[in-house]
Amino acid sequence: MKAFGLWALLTAFFYVSQTSLLPFFAYNGVSTNFMLLLTVSTAFILGARKGVFMGFAAGLLQDLTTGSFFGCSIFSYMLIGFGCGKFSTHVFKEQFFMPVLTSIFAAAFHYSMMLGFMFLLGYHLDIKFNVEHVLLPMIICQFVFAYPVHKIVFNFDKRIRRT
After folding, report:
1. Which residue, of 32, 33, 42, 133, has the greatest Cβ tally within 10 A?
2. Tens digit of pLDDT for each residue in 21-45?
3. How far is CA 39 from the centre of its chain?
């Protein structure tokens, strides 16, 4: 139970950082998605079941914050947590290259899922504009912060396992 509380505090830390600090460093309204990075890192370190749970929690916080289509981020994050968790059995836990690389694909997958939901709901989308002005800056931000976030989560998990 103590570990659950500590993981909840880590999630709250990244959530507060994403919602309060990152808007100051946004480029055209696009910034890093710490909740997505946390989901990817947790799934790689702890496996598919806990990755899905973290995806649910992070997606719920994301959906409650943005106020857009409720459930879209939850579904997308849970799929990402499951996929990364299933893939994590084939990777060394100490290797940092795969979570960093996967975070880029996870950002692209999440954004394409959101665009897909918007398209299905009848919104007009300019794909070229979205790719150039939203997706590419988002991928660059994710790449820059993926290693530090994964390092924090990895060291956090090691400390929790020691106690």
Report:
1. 42
2. 878 887 887 888 999 999 999 999 9
3. 5
